């Protein structure tokens, strides 16, 4: 009898967990879908676009990252934005997203004076927190794949960065279904981060988006 009660409790707890996860995701999606755009002409103009890191392969951007960079460069060349904030992980020489990202933008026609670098964008929450408090961004277009934008926009808005999304989706992606599934739980985690006011591990000195770029040639 005791075992049956434990099993029932576990089932009820699991069902409750599923309801909470789905409920939070539906709420975030309903609030953020209206400001996600897939066409450059429909996207509102802002001063800066934030491009999130997404992995590199042999010192070249992954498909996820390449499409994000191309989308951000498209916004820049069509005068929808004036500056680009690149945020990623350069924790080691073997995984230096920022160098790959900044060189790709430079090689595709972005003025280096318009490129800003966030070297401690270890996750989406950290990127948006640092964009607000380190780079002094108050409004931005967030550039990523659609599955990722709902969470990012929600984080940005809650942290005081008025956020729009520009979907960088082009074709198919390896592991996209898994990434989309995992995103349900990432949305819940980011909601908890917002509620508890989590601060990123690294903050550092201010690099005002209205001031000189911190782009370097190294």
Overview of this protein structure:
By secondary structure, the chain is an alpha/beta fold. It is built from 6 helices and 8 strands. It has helices at 2-32, 63-77, 97-107, 124-133, 146-159, 176-196; strands at 36-37, 48-52, 56-57, 60-61, 83-87, 115-118, 139-144, 162-167. It has a 6-stranded parallel β-sheet, sandwiched between helices. It has a two-stranded antiparallel sheet with strand order 3-4. α1 crosses α5. The N and C termini lie far apart (68 Å).
Oligomer: single chain
Poorly predicted runs are none
Radius of gyration: 19 Å
Roughly what percent helix?
40-55%
Q: In this structure, how is the largest beta sheet organized?
A: 6 strands, parallel
Basic shape: elongated
Distance separating the two termini: 68 Å
Spatial order of the strands in the main sheet?
1-8-7-2-5-6
Strand content: 5-15%
Structural class: alpha/beta
List the total number of helices. 6
Count all strands and give the number.
8
What's the pLDDT, averaged over the residues?
92
Order of secondary-structure elements: HEEEEHEHEHEHEH
What's this model, at a glance?
The protein has six helices and eight strands, in the order H-E-E-E-E-H-E-H-E-H-E-H-E-H.
Tags for this model:
single chain; 218 residues; alpha/beta; 6-stranded parallel β-sheet; two-stranded antiparallel sheet; 6 helices; 8 strands; 15% strand; elongated
Write the layout of secondary structure elements.
Layout: H1 2-32, E1 36-37, E2 48-52, E3 56-57, E4 60-61, H2 63-77, E5 83-87, H3 97-107, E6 115-118, H4 124-133, E7 139-144, H5 146-159, E8 162-167, H6 176-196
Parallel strand pairs: 1-8, 2-5, 2-7, 5-6, 7-8
Antiparallel strand pairs: 3-4
Helix pairs in contact: 1-5, 1-6, 4-5, 5-6
